[in-house]
Specification:
mainly alpha
Length: about 120
């Protein structure tokens, strides 16, 4: 694996979307092999507007030449309808509950939204 450093949040988020898209494609192939059909295309939620727009933008940006493989992979997935990339507000980014240090109220709100709850002790 080659490690690179992104110098902008858009590039970093875009690379994360690309990695997630590759994992989703693998999972979809596995489900298909198991005879399970998805009712709709999977959706990746990204809280970076630039990265979200770049996923479906048919115009290749010259400043993104070094992520060309990721760009074409994601764009092809979006254009064929096998994947959706949608913007989600940072306030509603559910993954933050599991990946960031948050104030208690914000954590509890996100925890509730993803369906985590405390179980009573027996």
């Amino acid at each position: 694996m080659i490690m690179t450093v992104a110098r902008s949040s858009t590039k970093a988020e875009y690379r994360s979307v690309a990695a997630t898209a590759a994992e989703i494609k693998w999972l979809c192939s596995l489900l298909t092999d198991l005879g399970i059909t998805l009712q709709q295309a999977p959706t990746i939620y990204c809280d970076n507007i630039g990265a979200t727009q770049l996923c479906s933008n048919p115009v290749f940006h010259s400043r993104m030449k070094h992520v060309a493989i990721d760009f074409h992979f994601i764009r092809d997935q979006v254009q064929t309808g096998s994947l959706r990339v949608a913007h989600v507000s940072s306030n509603d980014q559910l993954a933050d509950a599991l990946t960031k240090s948050l104030p208690r109220l914000k954590f509890q709100t996100l925890k509730t939204k993803i369906g985590l709850c405390c179980r009573g002790l027996s």
